[in-house]
Amino acid sequence: MKTEELFREDATLRECSATLLRADERGLVLDRSVFYPQGGGQAGDAGVLRLADGREIAIADTRKGEGGEILHLPAPDQAWQDLAPGQPLTACIDWSRRQAHMRFHTATHLLCALVPHPVDGCSITAQYARLDFHMTDPLDKDQLNQGLARLISAAHPVSHSWISDAELDANPGLVRSMSVQPPRGSGRVRLLKIDGVDLQPCGGTHVGNTGEIGAVVVTKIEKKSAKTRRVVLGFAPPAPA
Q1: Which helix (H) or strand (E) holds 95?
Q2: pTM higher than 0.85 for the full model?
Q3: Burial tier of 174 (Cβ tally within 10 Å: 0-12, 13-18, 19+)
Q4: β pairing state of 228-235 and 216-225
Q5: CATH class of segment(s) 4-93
Q6: Distance between CA 153 and CA 36 in Å, rounded?
Q7: Alpha-carbon gap, residue 183 to 201, rounded angstroms
Q8: pLDDT tens digit string along 93-138?
Q9: Strand-pair category, 32-33 with 4-5
Q10: Every domain of the chain and the residues it spans
Q11: In this structure, is the dihedral angle defined by the CA atoms of residues 235, 35, 118 and 198, taken in order, positive or negative?
Q12: Which of 11, 103, 146, 214 sits at 20 to 30 Å (Cα–Cα) from 126?
């Protein structure tokens, strides 16, 4: 049974009430969830599932299952075998982890605007983010950091909308990624828009405006191959007191 993906419409939801549908070695499946499953380069959420009796089950990761299911993966030391379908619970994400994902994921869209080349690799974690650009020209770290600072300080609004598969097919230029294609099959595709900056299909979680990204900077630029330049983002160290 497909899990209702609450995070697609509101990435700021930190918890939700839900009903357990299945519990087995593959993971715990709920009827609805705020947990984002690993995909599109973005790491899955962690957090806890709080049962009606107050007991908590730590969730170490979240993955996609079959048929639209979201698999909540308990930490290795957690006891979940006694859970039964139909149990009510509250799903609570690790907000600091999610917020880091949102900040970095939005920042990668700014990088796409600053580096107008196709993307052939992406990874977004709570510690860093990286994009691999299909290009041969060198990149300048200082110029990219200046561009990021400008776009972040401008606090451009971030929003999403939905278009049909046919509309996406009619506008192939919207797709920037060579390695991860927008999910199809549901009849619609989610578009992420940063006003005046970027517009492309994306199912990940993002902040509400670029000002919420905060102090994110380019920490490294690598030549991964003759036609690939890797840009790594990190959180800027705090200013000295």
Answers
A1: helix 95-114
A2: yes
A3: middle
A4: antiparallel
A5: mainly beta
A6: 27
A7: 9
A8: 999 999 999 999 999 999 999 999 999 999 999 999 999 999 999 9
A9: parallel
A10: 4-93, 98-235
A11: negative
A12: 146
